[in-house]
Every structure is written in C-alpha cells, then in structure tokens.
UniProtKB/TrEMBL annotation:
TM annotation in the entry: 39-61, 67-88, 95-118, 138-159, 166-189, 209-227
Organism, scientific name: Halorubrum ejinorense
Name of the protein in its database record: Bisanhydrobacterioruberin hydratase
Cross-referenced InterPro entries: BABR_hydratase, CruF, CruF-like
EC annotation from Swiss-Prot or TrEMBL: 4.2.1.161
Gene that encodes it: cruF
Length: 292
C-alpha cells in the first residue's frame, strides 16, 4: 500500500470517527454548526442576496449570473437552515406525513392558480426559478412552507399561554401569514420574479391576498396537526436560532421593498423585526460573532 493511499484511508477513518452515530448526535452537530454561523446565515446571506437580486433586476449583474436559479436556491436553502435544524428534533412520522400533505397542497393550489387565475389572480413566473412541474417551480415548498412556519412560530412565542387556544392561534397566525405576503409579493413583483399584470397594491391584485387567507388557513391547520404543541414550544423556547430565517426574511425583503420605494411593505417588514426583538429571538450572540 502506498503512503498516499494509507494517508487517504487514515483521513477517512478520522472522518468516520467524528461522524455522528445517532440522530441525537447528528442534531447536536447541526445545532452547533448553525449556532456558530448565525451572523453569516441570518445577516450576511440576506444582505448579499438583496444586493444580488436588485443588481440582477437593474441589469448590473451580468449574464449568466443574473437571477441564476441555482444561486437563488442555494441562498434560500442556507437561510432556511436555522429553521430546518431548529424544527428537526420535533419531526416524527406524523409530522412528515402532514408536511407531505402541505407540500401536495402547495403544488396543487399553485398549479390551479397558474392555470386558472384562482385563487390568487392571474399571474405568471417571469424569472427562472429552477426546474418546473406543470408550470410550478419544483422548489416551491422550499419557498412557501418555511414562510408559514416562521409566522406560526413567531405567533406562538408572542402569544405565550394564549396560544393554547386553537381559535386564538388561527386568529393570529393567519393574518401574520398574509402580512408576510404583503412584504413578499410587492418585492418579488418589483424584481420581476412574477407578474400579475398590474394590481392595486404595488402591482399586486387584492384577490391575491384573499387567496393567501385560504392557503394560510390550510397551512396553519396542517401545522397544528403535524406537531405536538408542547414539543414545538419547548424546542422553540430552548433553540435561540430557530427564527433566524425570519430575520433573513426581514432583511432581504424589507431591503428590497425599501429600494423600490414600497413603503407599506417595508413598514410591515419592520413590524416583523420588532416582533422578533420583542420575542428575544435575535440576540447579542449574533453581533458578537460579527465583532470577531
């Protein structure tokens, strides 16, 4: 055996020894990775993303990098990682089943929307967002489900014991989900991600938000079925980075709306930021990392 082969095998052996052997160990490793990189994930990525997307829309970023779908998807996945890692310990077979139901609904309602204009209004994708399936981006659940989950978790934190009531949860989370789209859609239309052909609210028709009320109801009911209320709240209490994806959302889409003069969507993004600070979900540890 050559020295180089022996060295390679030794390195593989070392990697195998460090690799987690159980789900709990894997979750602890992922927690540590996210925790040690919070500023990069939750602040730098959305800032760079906002600059790249605006630069693409304004023709500053050259082809083939402008709105490159794989760059966009990579950035989204990185920003989603705190939420995914945070939720992971609460995911069991029941949760996977209901998340599968929500994914199916996401494709179905978007496919119906593209084909018929119901319930969101007539719209079309005008930027390549990766592989498409029946006119719908394959990665659509990566964009939609975390948005709903972020609103759901933030409301659980802010409501405290009042979240025990299913009616209080519904009455709070559904408007929060719609409010997140009040931030998202005007910014996406300004960038040229998709086009409604005009609308009363920064190029977005009001029918779009009626459709989001329907989707929010389905999503919130599904999340209630998917997760143990006690389990998700315990993890949320103990995991300080679980809502960092929402911090990214505020920075990315709030910044884009400010750039394009969409003042009301920008103000709603700021309101979400205030909610995050009130919930103590974006603490000094992040900025300590930055100072290093």
């Amino acid at each position: 055996m050559s020295d180089s082969t022996a060295t390679t095998e030794s390195r593989f052996d070392a990697l195998r020894e460090r690799a987690p052997d159980t789900r709990r160990e894997a979750e602890a490793l992922l927690d540590r990775i996210v925790r040690e990189n919070r500023f990069t994930i939750a602040v730098l990525f959305p800032l760079v993303g906002a600059v790249a997307l605006i630069g693409s829309a304004e023709g500053v970023v050259p082809e083939p990098f402008a709105f490159h779908p794989w760059f966009v998807l990579f950035g989204v996945l990185v920003m989603r990682s705190p939420l995914v890692v945070g939720v992971l310990p609460t995911v069991d077979r029941r949760a996977l089943g209901w998340i599968g139901v929500l994914m199916a609904y996401t494709y179905l309602i978007e496919g119906v929307g593209v084909a018929t204009g119901w319930p969101y209004g007539e719209f079309a994708y005008t930027v390549d967002l990766g592989p498409m399936l029946a006119g719908v981006p394959v990665a659509l659940p990566v964009f939609f489900i975390p948005l709903v989950m972020n609103a759901y978790l933030l409301c659980l934190l802010l409501l405290g014991p009042r979240a025990d009531s299913v009616w209080v949860r519904l009455a709070t989370v559904i408007p929060a989900v719609v409010a997140m789209d009040v931030v998202l859609d005007p910014g996406a239309v300004a960038l040229g991600f998709w086009d409604f052909g005009g609308g009363a609210f920064y190029g977005v028709p009001l029918s779009n938000y009626a459709g989001w009320v329907l989707s929010a109801i389905v999503a919130v009911v599904t999340l209630d079925r998917a997760f143990s209320s006690a389990g998700i709240r315990e993890r949320l209490r103990d995991c300080e980075f679980m809502l960092d994806d929402m911090v990214s959302f505020v920075i990315l889409w709030g910044g884009i709306n400010v750039w394009y003069g969409n003042l009301l969507p920008a103000a709603v993004a700021v309101a979400f930021g205030v909610g995050l600070f009130r919930a103590d979900r974006f603490d000094a540890q992040v900025f300590t990392q930055w100072r290093r």
